[in-house]
Amino acid sequence: MSRPSATLKVMSYNLMGWSSFNANSWKGENVLGKINSWEPDLLGAQEVEKGGWGYQEVEELVVSTTGLNFAGGSQFFKPSKLEKLDEDWTALVGGYWMSMALYKHLDTGREILFYDSHWKHGYGLQQAETIANKIAADRTKHGSPPTILVGDTNQFCEGPKTEALRYLKGELQGSQGFSPVDLVDVHGEDQGRSFSDDNNPDCRVDFILASQGQWSVVQVAVDRGGIRILAITMLRTRHVTRRSHVKFGHGKGVEVPGLTCMTLEVPSVQSKEAWNSFLQLFSLADGIVILRISDDAEHDQEGYVAKSPLLGEVYEIVQSRPMFIVCVCKGPVRASLMTFPAISQLVLATTGASFGLPKYRHDLHPITQIALKKRMMEKAVRRLQLVGDPIDANEAQRLGLVDFIGDEAEVENEICRLVYRNCSPSSQYFMYKSDLVKAMRAKEEA
Predict the structure, then answer these.
(1) Partner of 50 for a Cys bridge, out of 22, 119, 352, 386, CB 3.0 to 4.6 A?
(2) Domains plus CATH for the chain?
(3) Cα separations (Å) of 205 from 14, 124, 169, 217, 221?
(4) pLDDT digits (tens, 9 = 90+) for 68-119
């Protein structure tokens, strides 16, 4: 039985408190009137102050006038719809900020992550990467609930085309690759201005972004009738199904489940029973399999891996099962354990990881060198066998054994990005033959 969907009306609004509640206090009534007229369930506000002071006064005025509760971090919520469970704060550049709150939707019990942000002018990609990494970490901590990011980005003209927004939407790589979270601009069709300067018709700075595949847009609006633009959207959470149903006739959209994901810890020293349990789990896996290698022990007294056919069976499973292996290396990887990065489609290593084949003739399983030759040139494998000296992560990357290097947080963020990208459900669209013929004819006639 599917879980009920949570429907929310979300608003992002820069109150421009220095003007609305100080220099031109008469404008404050209009600002509060706008909030009341739209009746948001969640309000992400910015500049909730009187010009560097009076934050609490404006906050209390919003609460008393609108009936919303204050959640901290310039967030307000409707208490009849939501309950706040957790909160956090992230510093951006030059004193600017992003606030986080975890809410429970009271009607459905579903949890929702909501972020409100106010960015510094410029520094777009730098701030976007900070925001994406924080959201990815929070989603991992809280089980990847439906997520919304709102705010005033201060990126100005042609905001949707700036590298910051393109990075958050997965269209552009940052300094560490693509964003670990995939977000969608719910007002993507609206390219108009975001504040009341008619001389800058394409200066859009206010955005509402929602996590890919977890929301359906019910209604969107941009209120340009005041001193500052309001971005409003009504969203409904999607139920993630594990089985897709094809609709015939005119229905062309099919929701396709993402890949499954299994994580297996692989200590270098285990008992025979532990290795056999690992093999059994591995033989049942499909989709994405994350192998976390740990080699902290000095000596394997049983020498089971080197003496048994276990690694050969692991190699056969990889060749026969529909799986994508991600190997995570955070320390020394030696001898027969070199098989695991060699059989993987993607190897992530921390800067402190190292790799080597010491005591080659004594403890190296024959399948290891066969697997290594699929990733590295044969002469490089032979040199490792002959010399026995370990190589660091950078050298391993140069030789083709490692694909990604970063500190521990960066490696974990990359894992989050890969899992979210490949394991989230997606929509697949089909065009029937009659529609395809019409489209081709229209293209030829154009």
Answers:
(1) 22
(2) 7-234 (3.60.10.10), 261-423 (3.90.226.10)
(3) 10, 11, 15, 21, 15
(4) 999 999 999 999 999 999 999 999 998 899 999 999 999 888 899 999 999 9
